[in-house]
Design goal:
The chain is of the alpha/beta class. The chain has a single domain, classed as 3-Layer(aba) Sandwich (Rossmann fold).
């Protein structure tokens, strides 16, 4: 199974370690097309060697290829929001994970979308349980 994983890059990298751990866990369910999102060497400047058109075309192709979309949405990101909107339009099963301990509020357009399953978590173990449940329901 091909998995598209989304998390903030240019919106902020404070959840990079969580993204990396979730990506490693997701590999037990299939191929993570967007493994670079968890790379600790990737700064908030993003993939500086690639122009926006290249990133957009590549990422949309990956979204189309993926059977499921998982996103860590604790750090707000315009890019992840765009990806989620495209994934809803494509009819992909989507799971968004939001860390309750962040002190942030999840966008209601994400939590209120009928096309997106949103789960709150307070630990990595809880986030992983949500992922396991998501895959069992597919």
């Amino acid at each position: 199974m091909d998995i598209y994983f989304g998390a903030s890059i240019t919106g902020g990298r404070e959840n990079q370690a969580s993204a990396k751990e979730l990506i490693e866990f997701l590999k037990s369910f299939g191929t993570v097309l967007t493994e670079h999102v968890g790379d600790p060497g990737l700064s908030a400047q993003g993939e500086a060697k690639l122009d926006g058109k290249t990133v957009h075309e590549r990422d949309v192709a990956w979204l189309e290829q993926a059977q499921v979309v998982i996103a860590e949405v604790t750090t707000p990101s315009l890019g992840v929001g765009y990806e989620l909107g495209r994934a809803v339009a494509l009819g992909k099963p989507i799971l968004c994970l939001f860390n309750n301990k962040s002190g942030r509020t999840l966008s209601r357009i994400i939590s209120g979308s009928e096309g997106i399953s949103t789960k709150n978590y307070e630990s990595m173990e809880e986030a992983k349980q949500h992922i396991e449940e998501f895959f069992k329901k597919l």
